[in-house]
Amino acid sequence: MVQRASKRYTYAYRLEELAPWVPRLRQLAAETERCYAFFNNHARGQATLDAKQLLALLQDSS
After folding, report:
1. What is the b/e burial string over 14-45, where b = at least 16 CB atoms within 10 angstroms of the residue's CB?
2. Measured between alpha carbons, how far is 5 from 41 in angstroms, rounded to an integer?
């Protein structure tokens, strides 16, 4: 059965899922001029909320 895209992309990451990315992103940012992270869970706008959560994690651990 094929899922509709709106169901497939309806997901909000938990902080426990985002936290392991903080050291990786910090390392990439230190090694490059710019570092970007993208979220593709956009059916109901979760990508924006997830990006804000990740940014808060990065700011908290600095």
Report:
1. eeeebeeeeeebeeeeeeeeeeeeebebeeee
2. 10
Work out the burial of residue 58: count CB atoms within 10 Å of its CB; fewer than 13 is exposed, 13-18 middle, 19 or more buried.
middle
Confidence of residue 59 (pLDDT cuts 50, 70, 90): very high
Tens digits of residue pLDDT in 15-38: 999 999 999 999 999 999 888 998
Number of Cβ within 10 Å of residue 53's Cβ equals 19
Contact 10, 42 (CB under 8 A): no
